[in-house]
Amino acid sequence: MGSGASGKQQDERRGSASVRRPRRGTCAAVANGEMQGFIAIAHIVRPQGRKGEVLAEILTDFPSRFKDLRRAFLDGPGCSPRAVTVEDAWLHKRKVVLKFAGTDSINDAETLRGRYVLVPEEEKVLLSSHQYYLWELMGCQVVVESGGTRKPLGTVTEIERTGGADLLHVSDNSRDVLVPFAQAICKVIDPGAKLIVIEPPEDLLDLNRE
To answer: Which of 122, 200, 118, 108 is nearest to 154 (CA)?
Structure first.
């Protein structure tokens, strides 16, 4: 996405294991050690205005958090995120305009193009029941429970956004299996233990073999 950091950046979008109220989200993983402990809430697209403002894509399901945002961090190539003071922020056409202290001209703002706006991971918004940050599900071990026994299926390597329940891409290095991220199938979801237990319909795994 043109970021100063390599690979995908974990963001503050969420997913839901509820069939009735599916939530869409973006899977993401921290690609380098320097980014550990942060989540992205915006991605700077370009300068906006003449006084150093920037226009950014929103990477959080909670855009209201920008109203009271006073401190954030910006990623940078080859260095740890640096702290910045947020002087102002407002929503604009499904994006957010941000003004950082010390960024006072179009040229200043241009240097921030492609940067991620980060907050410490401990400042993530707490979610309600059956909702999860999809980056927390990356790397989870998926096991199939049937008849009281459990059999390993693989590891979550990607989460595909859909118009309904998101799809978990589960790989065992020999094949990829698509598993709907729905409560009816995912019976145990424990990001802390990196474990997802599924009870799939009889034909689900057979379909993936075709």
So the answer is: 200
